Amino acid sequence: MSIMAKKKACVFCGNTNLSNEHIFAQWLLKELGILEKDVTMTHAGFAGIPFSNRKHPFSKLVNGLVCEKCNNGWMSQLEEECKHHIINLMNLKEFKEELKFLEEHHEKVAKWAFKNVILLNSATNYRQLVPAEHYISLYEGNIPAGVFIDLAFCKKDITIEWRQTPGGLVIKNKSLPIRLAASRYTITFQIKNLLMKVVFYDSEVNTLYESKGVLRLYPQFGVNGESDIIYNDIDQFDLHGAMHEYI
Ligand SMILES: [Zn+2]
To answer: Average pLDDT of 235-244?
Structure first.
């Protein structure tokens, strides 16, 4: 007896005409010099300690879940709009000009980071942390409520690295119930010297992700705190910060 496989559909729009593209754009793979190289995929555990480490042919890391129309349409447009600025940021070039650009276009760059992390989660064999609504929300042009996106820099210039976890500490009012099943995730990635982090906690009340020493891209642009926005490595940045839940 055979079981009919459910036809795979685009995570964004539901279209079944899927593309065969990498989760990261071609220009980014080229810039990183890894178009054809193997990349070690690290799955970080709850405390950020890697519990599995294996090599994947990175050029074969295709998402398989994005349609041609999305890939060649809004996604390609988003890549085109961010490309030049991301290349500058990851190479620590023209910082003053890029800071000005971010101040004006922080939501666009936040969407670019958000698109990358949700596709990363859909394509890797780590457990599914990102709710289906988040893909639909981005397709409709919005970053979902409860999502915070930060940017910082790393002292070390590495090719690419990422971390996916259900997230760390949640600080809450005593009157609020503990919700162990709350949907949540923290996904951080590094490309050369650039660090980007997307944090989500699904609260029925209010949330604030507190993180000093970062450039917040979303929801409100700003430099948080007086401290430096330069980190030793991706783990230091990934584990930095705490989610607050309040009434
Ligand atoms: Zn689509």
So the answer is: 94
Cα angle vertex 223, ends 220, 224, to 5°? 90
The residue extents of the domains of the chain are 26-246
What average pLDDT score do residues 18-31 get?
89
Flag the least confident range among 23-27, 53-57, 162-166. Answer: 53-57
What tokens were used for 167? Answer: 């997230």
Distance of alpha carbon 79 from alpha carbon 84, whole angstroms: 9
End-to-end Cα spacing for the chain: 54
CA angle, residues 130, 161, 145, in degrees to nearest 5: 30
Beta strand ranges found along the chain (DSSP E):
38-44, 50-57, 147-165, 170-172, 184-201, 206-210, 214-218, 222-224, 230-231, 242-246
What's the gap in Å between 135 CA and the centre of ligand 1?
Answer: 10
How far is 221 from 180, CA to CA, in rounded Å?
30
pLDDT value at position 169? Answer: 81
Can you say how many angstroms the Cα of residue 196 is from the centroid of all Cα atoms in its chain?
A: 7
Distance from Cα 65 to the centre of ligand 1, integer Å: 8
| 139 Cα to the center of ligand 1, angstroms | 8
Cis peptide before 166 (omega within 30 of 0): no
